[in-house]
């Protein structure tokens, strides 16, 4: 078999099964897109007017932010409630996760136990946070209690996986050395495992805090957990006030940036101090 | 009176693999014993059976009159404090300082909570500082271990073992990752510890020439069996051939001749 095709040209990319299936998928998606556009019912819509409206909405949202139904004091209070919800669930989740992760790490716990915990946490993670909140709402009622329980549950599931994988990256020799000198299991954990993985644990906890902060906003809007999410919900659904929604978004953005800056600094400090 | 008595020690992995096959030898207090043999012969397994990092399949190990083979839990921890161990890859917690790593050698003497919180008493700290200075790391005492050279790391490893106040040191390939100069410093340090402190030293070595130069006694292991046990001056070229297999044996002998000439 030569490199020439029937027409006498040279083929650069061989026609393998993988290439063929990618090409078929792309062609299929293109055809579907064309078809769906052709079936839009756009009779009552003037495309240019609609586009103008949309840009106008964006302008109100991003360039004309102001507060109306929420005052400044209330804004900061609401933001604090949301931060508190994110912080509390992260801390609870982190404490639970630390101890369970020790038992889920294959280099620290018996194999069967590690596997049981892993399977359990995989299930906890597979169910979205919102569903856990709704699940706890059955017993606790829709509100902040259900939100705290549900978010803690999912955070723990997430952090157990992250922490235990950090623990497993520790050099096996270090654990062996401490065992050889007569150290007990708990001593090995706190004298070798924790110092060696501290920076990784901190990174993962911050990542989870960011996730929990945004989840806390959503929970305020959907699960009655209060906080800035609730104010956004009101501004959006009841007052149809894009300008206020913009102001609230900026407040959240500001805090997210502050958080990022704080995380970077703490990690740098830990790296220097050891 | 022997410090260490190894009697028909056997270690089996699964049903097939026989890592150690009925190994017997005794070690007197204060001896410097080198264990030589090719990679995979079972040298590391042997050392780890002596402090029970690995469980023994059959046979007996007595250390200082105590039957090590059946120890469990706290009794095993107490036993391990009597035996220091030094590793090829140093096995330090890199993020911690020299003195923190050295103090880890005291954990076996501590209660669980004192150990978890790292509460060492003043006497232990003084002893740690003294030992760190004695291995020549007085300047590096608060340095993080990942900032040290290989030779310095190994000296931290030795200090960590010494702070245990052990009766015996097990050294698993202590110079296999070091350059010749650092290797000499480490081997000299081990010999000084042996001669000045009277601590028994068992050292696994790849380098036959180093073993012959430093040890009072050489034990040869091949495929899990003890094939030589005696005075390093009495080991013949033929026996070295036998331990290492002919081809690598030739290399060893060449090295030995060159040392003899130098």
From TrEMBL, chain A:
Q: Which InterPro entries match?
A: MetI-like, MetI-like_sf
Q: What Pfam families does the entry give? A: BPD_transp_1 (PF00528)
Gene3D superfamilies, per database record? MetI-like
Transmembrane stretches in the record are 20-38, 75-105, 126-149, 185-204, 216-239, 245-263
Membrane topology type: Multi-pass membrane protein
Cellular component (GO) terms are: plasma membrane
Q: Which PROSITE patterns match?
A: ABC_TM1
Family, per the entry? Belongs to the binding-protein-dependent transport system permease family.
**UniProt name for this protein:** Binding-protein-dependent transport systems inner membrane component
What is the originating organism of this protein?
Oscillochloris trichoides DG-6
From TrEMBL, chain B:
For the ABC transporter domain, which residue ranges apply?
Answer: 4-248
One Gene Ontology cellular component term attached to this UniProt record is:
membrane
- Signal sequence span per UniProt? none
Q: Does the keyword Kinase apply?
A: no
Domain of life of the organism encoding this protein:
Bacteria
**Pfam families according to UniProt:** ABC_tran
InterPro entries reported in the protein's UniProt record: AAA+_ATPase (IPR003593), ABC_transporter-like_ATP-bd (IPR003439), ABC_transporter-like_CS (IPR017871), ABC_transpr_PhnC (IPR012693), MetN_ABC_transporter-like (IPR050086), P-loop_NTPase (IPR027417)
- Molecular function as annotated in GO: ABC-type phosphonate transporter activity; ATP binding; ATP hydrolysis activity
The keyword rRNA processing is annotated on this UniProt entry:
no
Q: Which UniProt keywords apply?
A: ATP-binding, Cell membrane, Membrane, Nucleotide-binding, Translocase, Transport
The record ties this protein, via PROSITE patterns, to: ABC_TRANSPORTER_1, ABC_TRANSPORTER_2
Q: NCBIfam families per the record? A: ABC_phnC (TIGR02315)
The name this protein goes by in its record = Phosphonate ABC transporter, ATPase subunit
Question: Which source organism does the UniProt entry give?
Answer: Oscillochloris trichoides DG-6
- Organism phylogeny: Bacteria, Bacillati, Chloroflexota, Chloroflexia, Chloroflexales
């Amino acid at each position: 078999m030569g490199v020439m095709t029937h027409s006498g040209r040279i083929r650069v990319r061989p026609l393998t099964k993988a290439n063929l299936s990618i090409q078929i998928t792309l062609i299929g998606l293109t055809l579907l897109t064309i078809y769906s556009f052709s079936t839009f019912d756009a009779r009552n819509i003037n495309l240019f007017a609609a586009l103008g409206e949309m840009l106008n909405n964006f302008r109100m949202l991003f360039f004309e932010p102001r507060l109306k139904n929420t005052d400044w004091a209330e804004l900061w209070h609401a933001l604090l409630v949301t931060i508190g919800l994110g912080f509390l669930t992260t801390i609870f989740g982190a404490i639970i996760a630390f101890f369970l992760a020790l038992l889920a790490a294959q280099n620290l716990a018996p194999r069967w136990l590690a596997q049981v915990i892993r399977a359990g946490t995989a299930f906890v993670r597979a169910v979205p946070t919102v569903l856990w909140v709704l699940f706890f709402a059955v017993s606790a009622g829709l509100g902040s209690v259900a939100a705290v329980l549900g978010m803690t549950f999912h955070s723990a599931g997430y952090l157990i996986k992250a922490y235990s994988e950090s623990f497993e990256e520790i050099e096996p020799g270090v654990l062996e050395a401490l065992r050889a000198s007569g150290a007990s299991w708990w001593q090995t954990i706190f004298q070798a495992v924790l110092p060696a993985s501290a920076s990784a644990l901190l990174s993962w906890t911050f990542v989870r805090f960011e996730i929990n902060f945004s989840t806390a906003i959503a929970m305020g809007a959907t699960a009655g957990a209060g906080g800035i999410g609730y104010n956004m919900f009101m501004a959006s659904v009841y007052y149809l006030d894009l300008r206020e929604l913009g102001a609230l978004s900026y407040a959240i953005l500001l805090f997210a940036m502050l958080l990022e800056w704080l995380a970077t600094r703490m990690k740098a400090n830990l790296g220097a101090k050891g | 009176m022997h410090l260490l008595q190894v009697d028909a020690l056997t270690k089996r992995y699964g049903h097939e693999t026989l890592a150690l096959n009925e190994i017997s030898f005794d070690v007197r207090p204060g001896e410097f014993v080198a264990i030589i043999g090719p990679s995979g012969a079972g040298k590391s397994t042997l050392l780890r059976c002596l402090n029970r990092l690995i469980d023994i399949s059959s046979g007996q190990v007595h250390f200082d009159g105590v039957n090590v083979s059946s120890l469990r839990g706290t009794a095993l921890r107490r036993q391990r404090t009597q035996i220091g161990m030094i590793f090829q890859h140093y096995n330090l917690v890199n993020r911690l300082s020299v003195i923190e790593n050295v103090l880890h050698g005291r954990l076996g003497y501590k209660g669980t909570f004192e150990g978890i919180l790292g509460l060492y008493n003043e006497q232990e700290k003084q002893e740690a500082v003294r030992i760190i200075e004695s291995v020549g790391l007085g300047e590096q005492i608060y340095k993080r271990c990942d900032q040290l050279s290989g030779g310095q790391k190994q000296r931290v490893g030795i200090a960590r073992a010494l702070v245990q106040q052990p009766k015996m040191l097990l050294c698993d390939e202590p110079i296999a990752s070091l350059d010749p100069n650092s290797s000499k410093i480490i081997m000299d340090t081990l010999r000084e510890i042996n001669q000045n402190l009277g601590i028994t030293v068992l050292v696994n070595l790849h380098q036959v020439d180093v073993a012959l130069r430093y040890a009072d006694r050489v034990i040869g292991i091949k495929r899990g069996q003890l094939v030589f046990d005696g005075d390093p001056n009495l080991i013949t070229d033929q026996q070295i051939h036998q331990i290492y297999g002919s081809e690598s044996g030739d290399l060893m002998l060449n090295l030995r001749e060159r040392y003899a000439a130098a």
